[in-house]
Amino acid sequence: MDKPTLDIQLKTLPNAPGVYQYYDAEGTILYVGKAKNLKKRVSSYFTKVHENGKTRVLVKKIANIKHIVVDTETDALLLENNLIKKYQPRYNVMLKDDKSYPWICIKNERFPRVFSTRRVIKDGSEYFGPYTSMKTVSTLLDLIKGLYSLRTCNYHLSEAKIESGKYKVCLEYHLGNCKGACEGLETEKEYNENVKAIKELLKGNFKDSLSQFKSQMKQFAEDMQFEEAQKIKEKIEILENYQARSTIVNPKISNVDVFSITSDESYGYINFLQLSYGSIIRSHTLEIKKRLDESDQELLELAITEIRQRFNSKSKEIYVPFKIDLGQNLKVTIPKLGDKKHILDLSLRNAKYYRMERFKQIKITDPDRHVNRIMAQMKADLRLSEEPRHIECFDNSNIQGTNPVAACVVFKDGKPSKKDYRHFNIKTVVGPDDFASMEEVVYRRYKRLLEEEQPLPQLIVIDGGKGQLSSALKSLEELNLRGKIAIVGIAKRLEELFYPNDPIPLYLDKKSETLKVIQQLRNEAHRFGIEHHRNRRSKSALNTELETIPGVGEKTIVVLLKHFKSVKRIANAKLDELETVIGVSRAEKIYNYYHKK
């Protein structure tokens, strides 16, 4: 498919947080930015008058826009940082330096130290973060220090060196901040229990830590140490408000390719996220046209080979949503839980957004293709013998049996054809009988179409269950049309479609476009019918009393209502007021009627 123009790309951007990338005509990356709402932020570049000359030059050079959708604004900030450091775009000034976001490191050693760092070293140590604020890191480290006694020295505490008495306790031990592991005053098992609790806290599992804090606060309060209790209370509040680490970057997920797929009857959309050293460094979505009826598995296997060759990926592990066969050299993981699953879900979101944008772009540039796709989808979903290019939907409207009416709305090529809508006042049915009313209007509608030699629809939709469907079928049989036009009934819950002579309803996917068209049909029929019913009821209620006055006709009533706005005001009007509007003779009749009454 041809690349959409810049104007169409702007119209189809999602209203979601993410990172956008601007490219020039040669494909060189110009700028990377983050946004809470991609559509609003990117559109602002092309709608505002920019005072900054550099921004004006940038906007003139933009030829293509790419974007990656993420969960939150914080995720967007972190991803923006990674992409700017990787690509060094010409128009990005901030974040180009080598300074990275802070992490909390639990060192891979006996009696592990816990400290902040901006460098992630692959030595088996565990890293938590990154954090967007050093203040958050300091707060967490202070909390950890307040809860657990940990060493801060950088001694190599091997078992042999401790036993030989090489080290002596320092001031931290005497201050109560360390339990003296260097002299063997604390066991490795006891120390590691504390480290395990710290890991849980850093992962966002605060339950145990909060419980411990609250016990401390309570103890301080009982001991009348209110200042200390207040300090603990503030730490509890900070801890409760603190959000767990971002899901965009996780150092445990390193040098991995992530693939996901969404598809329709014509195309497959495969998203690729490339992770390097725990950071997303690339996102790309590939669109593949189906030649036959290929499965998602076949499309994904084909796309993975193509994408990895195109981007020269050397990753030995890939994450995918289901089992695929790619030979023996690759480790294939199907994540079910945790951060790995979250990354896979993020990839799928990007694939779905890309598909939605393509639909919007096609709708603008090639409306015929969009309509053809929906018609083919409806034909398949509704088990029809031909595409439902012309659909008619019927709905009855009556309230407490008064003014019974029916509506017929017409959709052509999946869109309302309002000039073909028709109202029906029920003529042959007495009282509120939906079944008989449906039988009457269906018969009248198609008898007229046959007499006038007008084209018949490919599909009739009846708003109602089996009863209304049976009534409509009687009329079609009478007109010798049964079997020539497909007909379905919609139950109240909308997901159920009833077919003639089939006791088991068809359930449509709530997200399917077929259901959306049928919902729109039913809503239009309901709206159109209710509107006509209200008009009849209002006219009847307004005119009834005035029409009973001898010598007062319809034209006089219209003139009076236009002037006085309501029947009540007409009844309370003075004689001279009525005379100025409708003359002496008729004014006296109306005035006398209400005042004698």
Automatic annotation (TrEMBL):
It is found in: Cytoplasm. Coiled coil: none annotated. Gene3D superfamilies: 5' to 3' exonuclease, C-terminal subdomain, GIY-YIG endonuclease, UvrC, RNAse H endonuclease domain. SUPFAM superfamilies: C-terminal UvrC-binding domain of UvrB, GIY-YIG endonuclease, RuvA domain 2-like. Residues 15-93 form the GIY-YIG domain. Residues 207-242 form the UVR domain. InterPro entries: GIY-YIG_endonuc, GIY-YIG_endonuc_sf, GIY-YIG_UvrC_Cho, RuvA_2-like, UVR_dom, UVR_dom_sf, UvrABC_protein_C, UvrC. Residues 269-476 form the UvrC family homology region profile domain. Its main location: cytoplasm. Keywords: Cytoplasm, DNA damage, DNA excision, DNA repair, Excision nuclease, SOS response. Pfam families: GIY-YIG (PF01541), HHH_5 (PF14520), UvrC_RNaseH (PF22920), UvrC_RNaseH_dom (PF08459). The keyword Chloroplast does not apply. Belongs to the UvrC family. HAMAP family: UvrC. Interacts with UvrB in an incision complex. The UvrABC repair system catalyzes the recognition and processing of DNA lesions. UvrC both incises the 5' and 3' sides of the lesion. The N-terminal half is responsible for the 3' incision and the C-terminal half is responsible for the 5' incision. This is UvrABC system protein C. It comes from Snuella lapsa.
